[in-house]
Design brief:
GO molecular function: ATP binding; heat shock protein binding; unfolded protein binding; zinc ion binding
Bound molecules: zinc ion
Order of helices and strands: HHHHHEHEEEEEEEEEEHEEEEHH
Number of domains: 4
Main location: cytoplasm
Family: Belongs to the DnaJ family.
Subcellular location: Cytoplasm
CATH topology of the largest domain: HSP40/DNAj peptide-binding domain
Radius of gyration: 40 Å
Number of helices: 9
CATH architecture of the largest domain: Sandwich
Binding site for Zn(2+) 1: 145, 148, 202, 205
Number of strands: 15
Strand content: 25-35%
Largest sheet: 4 strands, mixed
Strand order of the largest sheet: 10-11-15-14
Helix content: 10-25%
CATH superfamily of the largest domain: Urease metallochaperone UreE, N-terminal domain
CATH class of the largest domain: Mainly Beta
Length: 381
C-alpha cells in the first residue's frame, strides 16, 4: 500500500468522522482546482479526494484499516476519477459544502413521511356538553394500503435503486461559470429524489402506499366542552405518504342552540314571563332544567328584569370542579286587554294604593334599561 490516507488528510488514525470531514473540507477549499489550477495542486487534490472517499465510508475505511486497498482493482470506485466521473460523487457535495456552505440535507429523501392532521366538526346537544358524553364518529382519512403495506409496490415486486442517480436521489452537473467549473446538484428527475423507483406501482393505491377509507371512532367528550373546543385524538389523522406515521385527528365541538337556555361561559340563562299579579303575589314556576324539573321560587314583589340564580345548575367546569349557575330572568307582563270587571278591580286597587295619578320616577337617559341588561349579562340582580 503506497498511500497513507490518514497522512494525506493530516488526521490521526483514531480521528472521528467529524474530524475527517473537517480536515477534508479545509484541504478541499485550499486545493480545489478552481482556486488553484497548478498541476501539482491538482494532483494533491485528487489525493485528498481519494483519501476522503475511503475514510468517510465506514466499509472502505474498515477494509483499509485491515490492510486492504478499497481503491485498487475490484475495490469499488476507481481512484482519482475526478470531476464529472461517476465515482467521486460522494465527495462532490462535500466539496460544494466546503465552498458555498450549503450544508443542506443530502442524500435520497425518504418515501415515508408523517401524515397530516385532520379535523372534523361534531355537533352536540347542550346537555351533552354540560355533562360529557361518548360519541361514535365517522372519519374519512388516508389509511395504510393493505395490498402493499404502505410500500407502494405491487405485490411480488419491490422498489429498485434508481439507475440515473444510483440511489443518491440527486444528480450533479458541471457547468462553466465565471468562477470556473461549478458543480450543481438537483433532485433526480427520474426518481424525484427518492433514490428508488417503483417499476410496478401497487394497483390499489397507485404507489402512494395509502388509501382513503372510512372508519368509525368512539370519542369521549369531557363535560364542559364549548363551541370551538378541540379534542385531540393522537395518531387518528391522515396516514403519511409511503405508509408514514399518521397525524392527529382533532374533533371540533359545535354546540347546537338550545330552545330555552343560552350559554355564556359555564352559566346558562333563560327568561320566564309571569303575569303582573304573580309578580306581586309571588308564585312557583316549574322549569325543565338540565337536571330535571325544578320549581323556580318567584318571591312576592318581584320586579321585571330581576334574575334568580339557581346555583350549580349550569355547565360543568371543564377544568376544576363544580358547575356554573342557571340564571332565570324574570319578565313581568302587564295585561293589555281588560274586561270591565278586571278594569274595575284594578281601579279599586289603584285607589287603595293611592296610585290613581302616580308621579312616576324618571331615570337619566336609558339607564334603567341598560343597567338591567348589564346585570342580566353579569348574572346579578
Ligand atoms: Zn398499495
Ligand atoms: Zn434517481
Amino acid at each position: 500500500m503506497a498511500t497513507d490516507y490518514y497522512a494525506v488528510l493530516g488526521v490521526q488514525r483514531d480521528a472521528s468522522q467529524d474530524e475527517i470531514k473537517k480536515a477534508f473540507r479545509r484541504l478541499a477549499r485550499e486545493l480545489h482546482p478552481d482556486v488553484n489550477p497548478d498541476p501539482k495542486t491538482q494532483e494533491r487534490f485528487k489525493e485528498i479526494n481519494t483519501a476522503y472517499e475511503v475514510l468517510s465510508d465506514p466499509q472502505k475505511k474498515q477494509m483499509y484499516d485491515l490492510g486492504g486497498d478499497p481503491m485498487g482493482p475490484g475495490g469499488g470506485a476507481g481512484a482519482g476519477a475526478g470531476f464529472g466521473g461517476a465515482a467521486g460523487f460522494g465527495n462532490f457535495s462535500d466539496i460544494m459544502d466546503a465552498f458555498f456552505g450549503t450544508a443542506t440535507q443530502r442524500g435520497p429523501k425518504s418515501r415515508t413521511r408523517r401524515g397530516q392532521d385532520a379535523m372534523i366538526r361534531l355537533e352536540i346537544e347542550l346537555k351533552e356538553a354540560a355533562f360529557g358524553t361518548t360519541k361514535e364518529i365517522q372519519v374519512d382519512t388516508a389509511t395504510v394500503c393493505n395490498t402493499c403495506n404502505g410500500e407502494g409496490a405491487a405485490p411480488g415486486t419491490s422498489a429498485q435503486t434508481c439507475d440515473m442517480c444510483r440511489g443518491r436521489g440527486e444528480v450533479s452537473q458541471v457547468t462553466r461559470s465565471f468562477l470556473g467549473q461549478v458543480m450543481t446538484s438537483r433532485p433526480c428527475p427520474q426518481c424525484q429524489g427518492f433514490g428508488t423507483v417503483v417499476p410496478t406501482p401497487c394497483p390499489e393505491c397507485a404507489g402512494d402506499g395509502r388509501v382513503r377509507s372510512r372508519r368509525t371512532l368512539t370519542v369521549k367528550i369531557p363535560a364542559g366542552v364549548d363551541n370551538g373546543t378541540r379534542i385531540q385524538l393522537a395518531g387518528e389523522g391522515e396516514v403519511g405518504p409511503g405508509g408514514g406515521p399518521p397525524g392527529d385527528l382533532y374533533v371540533e365541538i359545535r354546540e347546537k342552540a338550545h330552545p330555552v337556555f343560552q350559554r355564556r361561559g359555564d352559566d346558562l340563562h333563560c327568561t320566564v314571563t309571569i303575569p303582573m299579579t304573580a309578580a306581586a303575589l309571588g308564585t312557583k314556576v316549574p322549569l325543565e332544567t338540565l337536571d330535571g324539573t325544578e320549581e323556580v321560587d318567584i318571591r312576592p314583589g318581584t320586579q321585571s328584569g330581576q334574575s334568580i340564580p339557581l346555583h350549580g345548575r349550569g355547565v360543568t367546569h371543564l377544568r376544576g370542579n363544580g358547575r356554573g349557575e342557571l340564571v332565570v330572568h324574570v319578565e313581568v307582563q302587564t295585561p293589555s286587554k281588560l274586561d270591565p270587571e278586571q278594569e274595575e278591580l284594578l281601579r279599586r286597587l289603584a285607589k287603595l294604593r293611592g296610585e290613581e295619578r302616580p308621579l312616576g320616577q324618571f331615570q337619566p337617559g336609558q339607564q334603567g334599561l341598560f343597567s338591567r341588561l348589564k346585570d342580566a349579562f353579569n348574572g346579578r340582580t
